[in-house]
Amino acid sequence: MKNMTFGQLLEKLLYLSNQKKSTLAKSLGYDISYISKWINGKNLPTQKSISNICKSTAEFIVNSLTSTSMQDLKNYFEIDANINNDEVLIQYLEENLKESYMETAQKSLPNIYKSTHWEDNYNGMIHINPRLRKQYLSKDFESFITKCNDLDMIICANLYKINPNDKMSIALMKSELAQLEDQSKVKIKLIIGFEGNEDDIIINTILIINMIALHACMDFEVYNCNIDSNSIVAVIKNRIFHSAVYTRDKRCLFTSMSKEKKTIDEMYYNLEELFKNQGKLLVKKASSIDLIKEKIYIQYIMGQDLRWLIGAMNELLMPFDLFEEVSKTVFGDNVELLDELKNINMFLQSVTYSSKLKVLIYASELKRYISSGELNFFNNPVTLTFEQRERHLKYIEKLILESDVVELKLLDGSFVDDFKDSADPSLYLSKSLKLIPIHPENNKNDYAILNDHEFKNICDKFFDDVWENRKDIVIDDKEEILERLQKALVYSKIISGNFKTNLN
Predict the structure, then answer these.
(1) Calpha distance 131→251 (Å, rounded)
(2) What is the pLDDT of residues 268-285, one digit of tens each?
(3) What is the rounded CA–CA span in Å between residue 448 and residue 291?
(4) In what order do the strands lie in the sheet with 406-411?
(5) SS3 (DSSP) at 378
(6) Same CATH fold, 123-281 and 1-113?
(7) Which of 11, 20, 122, 147 is 20 to 30 A (C-alpha) from 188?
(8) Which residues, including other chains, have CB under 8 Å from residue 213's CB and lie 6 or more apart?
(9) Is the four-CA dihedral 258, 262, 263, 269 of positive or negative sign?
């Protein structure tokens, strides 16, 4: 809770509940001097009594709350406003009082922790049915992450067997940890499995693609180890071990935590052995230049059953002359690279755009592209002029009007609300090769080449499911798509006209 000491947390809870130290002392059966010493940090409760003190204090605070003070407490500690069950709130306060006690005691009395194993000594804790586990786990990890210069973490989970909140907690953790990279060296291994109900295949696939595509500079790898358990296991090397067990209906049954070095070491090396010996790396990375030079890209477009999910406008669906112009802008005088790009361009024009092709483009990305002119040419950011943009959009319009084999649909919405402010994911599929462009960052312009056969099949199913079944966000009416493109072209002309007027 806000990284407070035990005394600070106790004082804050008394303040928010409008209660006095004397009232709490009477409720606990202690002299007020004890409460004062706990608050000012001169002393701490004994290990044997702390369990009862935390439980009784949590009950006292919650039972003292009015509707106003309860809302103040929830706002201050960022507790879900929809939690209206007193027992849940009591459990949450009790857990955090215990955690705060552990942190405070560990700093002031470190020798207590050298040989302890049970909850009474607070090297480990178990929480039954922790409905606020997501918030608790995030905070618990945060307190340890900020203490170390290097962060080496392994997380093991089957996304198909945990609830949506915990899926998002894992998926968003990469973005949260990316904020620490200026101060810390971050290294993460995610071990996953795909066994279970496929009802969530869209959200699960999007979460995995985003974890792969976001924050290109982070040392982050995903392994398929055929994990088929209803649990999450997470360990930060030399810091903390966490586990959570779920019921069949994906409710969290209990969590356990340990800071004991022996437990942490054993779990870390067991998980490391698991992904090294049994894991299949989900993707292999290649730079955009390597993808072109080593002819991986042209192998991809020569494949059968091409399907594109376009979250960032790029070199695809460009007219021949515009492709050549942008090639020279991005890659300059690299003759070898430009020659290979010419071959790619000719194949796209003569074969790809004349063959069966399915394309999904985010409508929001089209709007952004029209306004900014920014696209990723072979995953290299570049800004096009208004005139170039207009030629690009007219070519797409021409393909829609004249081609019987190129099918284009728009995605008008987001699959996952928590990612709606992030860059939209891209995915390029064929029968053999499958690629994910990694969002460019600090001159890293990599692609992820799908390496795991099971994940390749899942991506195929994901695309087909969206293409066929997501009528709520997919626009497939050709006239509506053309109307949107034409409006976009008009808008582009207006901007272009105003821009020229301002120059004169």
Answers:
(1) 9
(2) 999 999 999 999 999 999
(3) 10
(4) 283-287, 446-450, 434-437, 427-429, 306-310, 357-362, 406-411, 474-475
(5) coil
(6) no
(7) 122
(8) 423, 425, 426, 436, 437, 438, 439, 448
(9) positive
Q: Give the tens place of pLDDT for each residue, 52-95.
A: 899 999 999 999 999 888 888 888 887 877 777 888 888 888 88
Q: Please state, in angstroms and rounded to a whole number, the distance separating the CA atoms of residues 296 and 285.
A: 12
List C-alpha distances in Å: 357 to 18, 93, 124, 332. Answer: 66, 56, 56, 31
Contact present, 467 and 360 (Cβ < 8 Å): yes
For the ranges 141-145, 169-173, 211-215, 465-469, the lowest mean pLDDT is seen at 141-145
Q: How far apart are CA 247 and CA 163, in angstroms?
A: 10
Class of domain 1-113: mainly alpha
Which architecture, in CATH terms, is 123-281?
2-Layer Sandwich (3.30)
Task: Please report the pLDDT score of residue 108 as a whole number.
Answer: 63
> Who contacts 117 (Cβ-Cβ below 8 Å, separation ≥6)?
123, 124, 260
Going from N- to C-terminal start, the domains of the chain cover: 1-113, 123-281, 285-503
Q: What is the pLDDT of residue 110?
A: 45
**Amino acid, res. 141:** F
Of 407, 408, 403, 398, residue with least CA distance to 486: 398
3-state SS, residue 263: helix
What distances in angstroms separate CA 233 from CA 137, 155, 173, 258, one per listed residue?
12, 6, 14, 12
